[in-house]
Amino acid sequence: MAKFIGKANDGFEPGWQIVPLSGQKEITLQAGSGFNVVDGGAHKKIIALKETSHGGNRLPVRRFMIKGVKRGKTVVWAKDKAKLAAQIVVEVKPQRVVTIALNYVEDKAGHKTKRSPDTAGALLKKINDIYLPQANVKFRKVSAGIRKINEDLGPIVMRDRKTPSKDKFSVLIANRVPGAQINVFFVWECEKAGLDADVEGHAEIAISRNEKTNCMVEDSLGTSFERVVAHEVGHNLGLKDDYTNPKLLMYGKKEKINGTLLTRSEILSICAQ
Ligand SMILES: [Zn+2]
Predict the structure, then answer these.
(1) Which of 93, 99, 152, 204 has the largest CB neighbor count within 10 A?
(2) 154-178 CB burial, b ≥16 within 10 A, e <16
(3) Mean pLDDT score of the chain, rounded to an integer?
(4) Helix (H, G, I), strand (E, B) or coil at 141
C-alpha cells in the first residue's frame, strides 16, 4: 500500500508534517510507482512540491522536496488514476525562536555542578536537533555561564512549595537571567518534597505562551542528560508529562528515558502561530 513517510526525526504522526516557512522538508512515498503526486491545495500556493528522486515515477520509493512558501495547511496526494492512494497533510509554519539561559550553579557553601559552560553549545545543539525538525522551534542561547548563588542551597536542592524556607528552587528563580524566556539551572542533586520518586529535574509548566519559566536539572545523569534537559524545557513551554509512550520526549516515568518524539497536539501547542 502506498504511504508517505517523513525522515525519522521529522515527526512520527502518520500522514502529517510541519514544513518550515521559507524552508523545506523531504518526504518519501513508498510503493507509489506510477502514481500522480500533486499538491491538493495547489491554487493556494502554500507549498512548492518537487520530485527529487531520479528515475521518475517508475521507482517504488520516490522522494519529494516540499518547500514552505506561505503559512497555511495543505495536503499532498498520491493518486492512482482518479483514486486516492496516499496522502499527507502539510502545515507551513514560521520558525519560533525561544530564548534560553543556561546557568551552571555554584552556591556559597561550595556545592557546584559538575557540568561546565563549555558544553553549553553541544547541549543546545542536541535540544535543537529534537525540536527544530519536528516543530520548527529553535532555542537561542542568550547566556551560558557559572551562576553564583549567595546562599547555601544544601546537598540536595529542594522544591518545597509548602515550606518556603526550604524551597531552594525559588532561590534559583530569583537568580534567573531576566532577558531569557527560559532559564535552566544545572545543580548537583535535586528532589521534590513530598514525592517518593527520585527526580532528575524539575520545571515550571507554562500556562501562557510567552510566560517566563525556569527549570533545574541534576548532574547525576549519564547519557540521558540532554534528553532530560529537553524534557524539562518542554514543560517550560507548557507541555505536560505523558505516561503512555516511552518514545515520547514528554514520557514522564524514570525508566527508559530516551524518547524524543513530540505528538501532533504538542507540536501545535508550541510551534509558531
Ligand atoms: Zn516531566
Answers:
(1) 93
(2) eeebbbbeeeeeebbbebbbebbbe
(3) 93
(4) strand
